[in-house]
Amino acid sequence: MSDLGLSRAEVERLGRRVVTMVANQLDGIRERPVNRPVPQDVRRRLLALPFGEDGLAPDQILDFIAETIMPWPMGSGHPRFVAWVNSPPAPIGILTDALASTLNSAGDGAEHAGRFLLKAVTRWLAELIGYPTDTTMGLLVSGGSLANLTAIAVARQRAAERDGWDIRVEGFQGSRPAYVVYASDEAHSCVRKSVELLGIGTANLRLIPSDAEFRMPPTALAVAIAADRAAGRRPFCVVATAGTVNTGAIDPLDAIADVAEREGLWLHVDGAYGAFGCVDPAAAPRYAGLARADSVALDPHKWLSVPIECGCVLVRDAELQRRTFSVIPPYLDSAAAPDPDNPRWTIEYGFTLTANFRALKTFAVLAQLGRSGVRAMVARHNQLAQDLAARIDGAPDLERLAPVTISAVCFRYRPAGAPDDEAILGPLQTRIAEALNREGEAYILTTRLRGRTCLRACIMHYDNDVSDMAHLVERARTWGRSLNA
Ligand SMILES: Cc1ncc(COP(=O)(O)O)c(C=O)c1O
Asked: Topology of domain 371-484, per CATH?
């Protein structure tokens, strides 16, 4: 046996041990603290971990993981973890991820069944949100950041083609009018990073002030585009958000699509968090216009409980996307011989070459839920968010700071009659979140809305129920009272 090889008996014995570790982690999670801060000695031990001259036995490695890593998880599997946009990993996704590693297919290249499954899974995702599938390319990527970057790169390619120049050859080195991107001031920070990385520059990113509901006003968008044109710049892309990271606000997509169409701009929708919200009939009207987008980002690892990492980008014009990214070196030449039953390798449509076989866990989670299961889960989360909002509205010392559109709820502790003074209320919210997270009863974030610090809960667990909402309100009020006193 080589240094890494294991006998079949050993694979089975160790595999059972790993599966037991998985089951132990999932079983009874509700009864354990949501969050366990990593003790100082463990931090130091890990930071200084020596790389030994001699290898360890697999059992020693699993002992180490069981004792030193698994007791201190981020907590996103717990039903009372409501921070960021992190759904818990579905058990079927965890288990099939091991199968994906076993197959170890290098992304989408070469001949393997996973290539064809990827096509089906990205089509399922498009169908789920009612996005056209005929000319669309779907890629599974690491997450929303790469999905948005990919889409904006394709938008930039289209603008350059329309202007009659080859950006892939010339880059942004010439003396051309500045290319401008539009998004709301509630757009995710990865839009800014994308604009920086694509050579557009933040000087050419217009963050349109959002309205009272944290949505991008189409009129202000049109005014900003006109101002840029008047100044000789080249507007080319609007990034609308369907589910902002702070409040879950959905920009008025249909009206923004009208502006984009009139102005000849690419419309990208960042639905990394919220695109799946459209399957909830109560929220669906808010998504009118989504299918008009040139591209959409939507992350199975955010709302659908597909284990991290799994983002997705859909681009309606697959050929344009290929012109944006395709480079076929001689050693990948077989990628250039497509036929209807053998679609081109997706490596021609994005930046990444070798990639994890994300389609397998995504297929497994979607297949277990079925369309009706996805609808029921998303609708339940949205209803629970409404339930939480109603409890907040009914509490004299809590104040909601944003409308609840999908599953995110922003609120703060403010004793009845207390002035709206951020200098006092802001640090109070931070201390409430710290206390709540430290006691392990919940895990919540703070964010800032229009200069006000607030608590933010995002409801995403497949096991959430109203008791979790009641509990969160009770703990926030209890800590608020005690820390305010
Ligand atoms: C609206 C939105 N877009 C993009 C992202 C970035 O996604 P990722 O963290 O998967 O890169 C997030 C993350 O929460 C998000 O909420």
From this structure: Aspartate Aminotransferase, domain 1 (3.90.1150)
The pick from 74, 76, 82, 85 for probing ligand 1's pocket by mutation, whose C-beta has the most ligand atoms within 8 angstroms, reads 85
CB distance 325 to ligand 1 below 6 Å: no
Residue 333 confidence (pLDDT): 77
188 CA → ligand 1 middle, Å: 7
CB of 145 shorter than 6 A to ligand 1:
yes
- Residue nearest atom 6 in ligand 1 by C-alpha distance: 144
Pairing of β 398-400 and β 311-315: unpaired
Tell me the pLDDT band of 336, cut-offs 50, 70 and 90: low
What's the pTM?
Answer: 0.97
pLDDT average, residue stretch 362-377: 98
Ligand 1 close to Cβ of residue 276 (< 6 A): no
CATH architecture of 105-356: 3-Layer(aba) Sandwich (3.40)
Q: Over the chain, what is the mean pLDDT?
A: 96
pLDDT at 109: 76
